[in-house]
């Protein structure tokens, strides 16, 4: 957590009222599972999907965060429940999917938003730190994807998966572990989009740019202050920007889209610099002219 313990992102009240282009029945009668569902992006997805008519099942490691979100959604008249789940444990993931299927009778959409990393020069990564990031972001995402796909195959009915990743088109300084993990998720998603098409399963990724959420507490204030300048729009995005991309992919609007990476970064992959650990002198070419 940052020294200042600052709060970032949208509140439940804001997410409940945020303007949306999606119809209130776009996901009517459907069930959506959202890992990391009480985090900044996952929470926005949960609110949007609930407002589109879906029953939402949110998971994460912290019971109190899930309870608060479920209470807010329920109070607003939406169907929601939360379950503690560490996506790194394959055993827990399988047990979770068995319970959800028994309780809900179906799942239509899985959004993998559980994830994260810490900023550090790659040369200093400890084996434990590397494993934490790879196990959470690559293995955890895979556990959820495969467990969902197996249930869809066994039920003879498809579904769709949205994996929240990171923009991997160029080196992102200070987070090489996560670029390795997310590149794996993107490659995996493209491969299984093909393998699982006969099962009626679509698999896509959303790659956010700098999106203001509580997850930003892991970065220094100085690094965060540069995030608006990482893209040609010269501003950060909100979790709602990512939620609406997930809405497009899960609803019938995304019905002919699979194996795709939808980048929502204000154009940051085309212009801009991101320095999660600060810009080293070596790269300050403007001072060396
Ligand atoms: C295109 C432009 C975009 C730019 C924006 C920035 C890019 C991305 C931003 C985001 O994604 S923000 C939202 C995501 N949220 C987070 O990242 C939250 C913080 N991260 C996590 O919680 C990660 O999931 C985690 C770090 C993998 C958590 O895993 P775990 O719970 O197992 O962690 P720990 O037990 O705390 O640590 C395990 C191990 O990892 C090493 N380590 C952890 N933190 C640091 C650190 N700050 N510095 C160095 N090393 C760290 C360390 O080895 C830990 O072991 P111990 O030393 O504690 O024994
Ligand atoms: N915000 C941004 O600028 C960007 C975000 N992203 C990615 O988007 C995703 C969501 O990030 P965001 O919402 O911003 O971050 P948050 O930190 O707010 O949310 C991440 C959530 O993931 C959950 N989580 C972490 N590890 C595990 C685990 N092992 N098992 C289950 N749940 C876990 C946490 O739940 P709990 O606290 O309960 O453990 C947390 O609620 C992440 O993958 C992130 O890296 C990508 C690019 C930019």
Automatic annotation (TrEMBL):
GO MF annotation list: trans-2-enoyl-CoA reductase (NADPH) activity
Pathway linked to the protein: Lipid metabolism
Catalysed reactions listed for this entry: (2E)-octenoyl-CoA + NADPH + H(+) = octanoyl-CoA + NADP(+); (2E)-tetradecenoyl-CoA + NADPH + H(+) = tetradecanoyl-CoA + NADP(+); (2E)-hexenoyl-CoA + NADPH + H(+) = hexanoyl-CoA + NADP(+); a (2E)-enoyl-CoA + NADPH + H(+) = a 2,3-saturated acyl-CoA + NADP(+)
The protein's enzyme class: oxidoreductase
InterPro entries linked to this entry: NAD(P)-bd_dom_sf, Peroxisomal_t2-enoyl-CoA_red, SDR_fam
GO biological process, one term: fatty acid biosynthetic process
Family statement drawn from the similarity comment of this UniProt entry: Belongs to the short-chain dehydrogenases/reductases (SDR) family.
Full protein name: Peroxisomal trans-2-enoyl-CoA reductase
Source organism of the structure: Sulfitobacter alexandrii
């Amino acid at each position: 957590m940052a020294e200042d313990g600052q709060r970032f992102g949208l509140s439940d009240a804001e997410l409940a009222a945020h303007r949306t282009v999606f119809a209130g029945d776009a996901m009517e009668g459907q069930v959506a599972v959202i890992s990391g569902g009480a985090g900044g992006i996952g929470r926005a997805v949960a609110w949007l999907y609930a407002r589109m008519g879906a029953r939402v099942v949110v998971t994460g490691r912290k019971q109190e965060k899930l309870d608060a979100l479920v209470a807010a959604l329920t109070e607003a008249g939406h169907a929601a429940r939360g379950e503690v789940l560490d996506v790194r444990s394959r055993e827990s993931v399988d047990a979770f999917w068995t319970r959800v299927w028994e309780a809900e009778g179906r799942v239509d959409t899985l959004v993998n938003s559980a994830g994260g990393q810490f900023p550090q020069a790659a040369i200093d990564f400890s084996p434990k730190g590397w494993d934490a990031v790879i196990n959470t972001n690559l293995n955890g995402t895979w556990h959820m994807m495969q467990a969902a796909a197996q249930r869809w195959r066994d039920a003879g009915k498809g579904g769709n998966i949205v994996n929240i990743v990171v923009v991997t088109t160029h080196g992102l300084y200070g987070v090489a572990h996560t670029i390795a993990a997310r590149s794996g998720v993107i490659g995996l998603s493209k491969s299984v989009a093909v393998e699982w098409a006969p099962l009626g399963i679509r698999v896509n990724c959303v790659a956010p740019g700098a999106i203001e959420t509580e997850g930003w507490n892991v970065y220094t204030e100085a690094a965060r202050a540069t995030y608006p300048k990482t893209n040609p729009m010269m501003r950060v995005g909100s979790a709602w920007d990512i939620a609406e991309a997930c809405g497009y992919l899960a609803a019938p609007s995304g019905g002919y889209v699979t194996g795709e990476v939808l980048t929502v970064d204000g154009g940051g992959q085309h212009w801009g610099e991101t320095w999660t650990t600060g810009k080293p002198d070596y790269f300050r070419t403007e001072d060396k002219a």
